[in-house]
Amino acid sequence: MAEVNTGDGGGHGKHDKKRAKKLSTRIDMTPMVDLAFLLLTFFVMTSTFNKAKTMEINFPAEPKSDDQRQKVNNALTFIMSKDNSIYYYYGEFYPAGNDKGNPATTLEKTNFSKDGLRKLLLDKNRSTVEEVNKLTEQLKSREIADSTYKRLVVNAKGSKGALTVLIKADDKALYRNVIDLIDELNICQVGKYAVVDMMPAEFELVTAAGAK
To answer: Comparing C-alpha atoms, which of 115, 111, 151, 156 is closest to residue 133?
Structure first.
């Protein structure tokens, strides 16, 4: 609220000289302060604050001895290295001259293009992708509830025949590329993946491949 006080300017006497009236202004800031706090409260209560984005990464338990290492079926291993390079091999790793007499493992190279990493993952994980798509159609047609859908999707991704991905990286790999790879795994419905250490024989193969 604002008030204007009108002063008498003098000149009441016979010989007094009349002077101009002086006006004094007083502004009440209370309503403005109330409005400011109301607006502040409104924006605080209606604003959505940014939530920290996290990504779940599974780390396997360290075995007590080498004899307790279990063989992983249907496993695809990715090895990240310098220059955004991605190498992979399917199945168990066999070094040159292994005791079992199996052919030595060779590395294949891929990239983040649409015909590279994603196509590879969709081909290797086709059965799980088809199962999840079928469940999604059932959810859209309301044949199953949302809670049932989530449970069945988790079971499909974690089944014994589903693809398992092992992620390995050397000291020259970019952290961003590892995150991009995990994003691709989620897009391709891969539910079993873990970040593990690289074996010395694998490091030698990656080093030799990068030197070519």
So the answer is: 156
